[in-house]
Amino acid sequence: LALAAALAPALTGCGDDAPPDTVAAASAGSVTVEDPWVRATTGTDDPTMTAAFMTIDNETDEDVVLESASSPVAGMVQLHEMAGSGDTMSMREVEDGIAVKAHGGQLLQPGGYHVMLMDLARDLAPGDEVDLTLHFSDGSSQEVTAPVKEYTEEEGHYHSPGTEEHSH
């Protein structure tokens, strides 16, 4: 009891100076990343670039935007999307980021939104891991370690991506 009484002033001094309702609102939800993975570069036509895929969940009360990403394995990282015009699909940079609605999610997947890793420092083989930092419009960042998964370009699909449909 004496120990508890002695520690009480010290513990209250460690707290946030914000009013209690502000602290509760800030912790009401979070942005999380699930099932991240990166396409292997071994066996591809261009091993200097690849893409990262994942599901981003936003359990907060506000929309957020994935504004940028970075990785120590890439000289340049951009947010991209695949866009179609008729029978032609092309990849383009997403200038305004990737929106993630409040209490919703956004799937980054082959053929859709993705994080493009360019000017790679090394080849990426299945079983490797890639560190990514995702930067959001609310000022938060997420550190992600994504496994590298096999890709067979001539087959035109990804193996075991972990990017099944995701809904809320």
In short:
This protein is mainly β and about 170 residues long.
Structure description:
Helix content is 11%, strand content 48%. The protein is built from 2 helices and 12 strands; from the N terminus they run ααββββββββββββ. The strands form 2 sheets. Strands 1, 2, 3, 4, 5, 6, 7, 8, 9 and 10 form a 10-stranded mixed β-sheet that branches. Strands 11-12 form a two-stranded antiparallel sheet. Mean pLDDT is 80; it is low at 1-28 and 154-168.
State the secondary-structure class: mainly beta
- Principal-axis shape equals globular
Largest sheet: 10 strands, mixed
Q: Estimate percent helicity.
A: 10-25%
Please name the defining characteristics of this protein:
disordered C terminus, globular, 2 helices, mainly beta, 10-stranded mixed β-sheet, single chain, 168 residues, two-stranded antiparallel sheet
Detail the topology: elements first, then pairings.
Elements: H1 2-13, H2 20-26, E1 31-39, E2 49-58, E3 64-70, E4 74-85, E5 88-93, E6 98-100, E7 104-108, E8 114-120, E9 129-136, E10 141-149, E11 151-152, E12 157-158
